[in-house]
Amino acid sequence: MGGLRQEGARGVLIAVVSTIVVAAAIAFVVTRSPNWPQVKEAFFNGEEFRSSFPDIAVKFVRNVEFFMVAEVFILTFALLLAVMRSLPGPVFFPIRALSIVYTDSFRGIPTILVVYLLGFGVPSLSLTGVPRSATFWAVVALILSYSAYVAEVYRAGIESVHPSQAAAARSLGLSRWKTLRFVVIPQAVRRVVPPLLNDFVGLQKDTALVGLVVSVPEAFKEAQIIQSADFNFTPLLAAALLFLLVTIPMTRLVDWLVARQRRRRQVATAL
Amino acid sequence: MIGPRADGEALRLEGIHKSFGRLEVLKGIDMYVADHEVICVIGASGSGKSTMLRCINLLEPVDAGRIMVRGEEITARGVDVNRIRRHIGIVFQAFNLFPHMTVLRNITLAPTEALGLSRTEAQASALELLERFDLADKKGEYPDRLSGGQQQRVAIVRALAMRPDIMLLDEVTSALDPELVAEVLNVIRELAAGRMTMVIATHEMGFARDIATRVCFLDEGRILEEGPPDSIFSEPREDRTRRFLQSIIEAGRM
Q1: Which residue in chain A is spatially nearest to B105 when comparing CA positions?
Q2: What is the DSSP code (8-state) at residue A132?
């Protein structure tokens, strides 16, 4: 982007022309392929798209809800896990060990398995006092699984704060806890915002997994239902498009934040 | 901590030993500091100056020996380190300001969170200190917008805001460009004029000579020689002290 701006109007013109040429070439090759009519009918059916898109879009609201609810819990729980792991000294060994076992386990198990296990497993136990909603447990599964990843992101951030910062805070008489709260964690979180947002993108996509176990459809499930009713894959493409509408802006935001951070560091070192 | 003692003792180190793994850095340090004294600790890099100061602030646990602050043994078991540290200010070579906080917040953090002062009280006394050290216009800036000299002065103010009984300064000018050294030394001179008790590890020999009530020469983890600055700098008894001072003169730093 920056490169284009520097090259000026001529650069932009060249970029536009070359993009049009490449796109036309791809379109030409694809539409000339022998099976294109069938592929077009099954995946890019305009009528099917128009009729299914509104239904799927309505259900996609559920995915955004799952995402937002899960994210709040993930950010909190993961921070707790990361702090547990950063506690020093032999006294806290059991707490550190607990956190390590947790993150290792949940990072090692495919998310889809956790969603299945909890989403189908827990409601089938019919335990008293425990929610029986498969949706509830599927979202819990996402929280448990993603917290392990996000805890590692936080941990990297905490470890990247130089020990001299904690030493300075402790030397002023701040307790270990207040040092973490006011000095270490705020700096750690600022540094890991881009990778955190990356995990947000992943989570938004994985809300589709909830559709595997629930009766209340979300976007993917709805698309699947329409697909099997109409014998056409276009609804799945419509669902994919909805996910992209959310995840692409998030990805661009990550890029922008990373670039801004790099600029700031350069300014700081230049001073 | 209890107030000043009748005998004026501010700080006493008795047989302090400290090792990092197999490396023994402090090999039995004895030191006495009276109220209002300014002790300059000189010695080559690696002689243990920083480690000694960090031990006094309890940032490093000692392996053996005792440290007494106004008669209270702070190295005893079960001592509340946070309470002790509030009485002992330390300033580091690398400033260690909190980069995510403004100058004012850097200074008020510990008074509000460790001493329990209200924000208004803490800010009022912080502004007073900033005023005194000519930094009032920087209160809203973030540390990375300040010069090294300004950052170090802020770090000194941050330590002073806790109203410590003793200040420890760990080579506070060593990371500064030469033209910024004077402004920081002037701040320390002013503290000395205000009768602050200080232990200063420094390579600035001219400054040590001016300001110190006593100079200690630290060599390989021991205090080899100590005395009034005139006698240490003009007629050192020990051969090693003489050689150290000679090397400083040859480097053009005295």
Answers
A1: A182
A2: -
Task: Among B81, B96, B99, select the one facing A167 at the smallest CB separation.
Answer: B96
* pLDDT tens readout for residues A137-161: 999 999 999 999 999 999 999 999 9
Torsion of CA A240, A246, A252, A254, to 10 degrees: -110
Give the tokens for residue A202: 């992943």
- For A169-185, the pLDDT digits (tens) are 999 999 999 999 999 99
Contact assignment for A174 to B99 by CB distance below 8 Å: no
Among residues A200, A214, A212, which one has the least CA distance to residue A247? A200
Query: CB-based contacts of A92: which residues, under 8 Å, 6+ apart?
Result: none
Can you tell me the distance from the alpha carbon of A243 to that of A222, in angstroms, rounded to the nearest whole number? 14
Strands (E), B35-138: 38-42, 64-69, 72-73, 88-91
Report the C-alpha gap between B246 and B254 in whole angstroms.
10
Beta carbons within 10 angstroms of residue A110's beta carbon: 10
Contacts of B97 in chain A (CB under 8 A): 168
Instruction: Provide the residue type at A267 as one letter.
Output: V
| In contact, A166 and A179? CB cutoff 8 Å | yes
Share of residues in chain B with pLDDT > 70 (%):
98
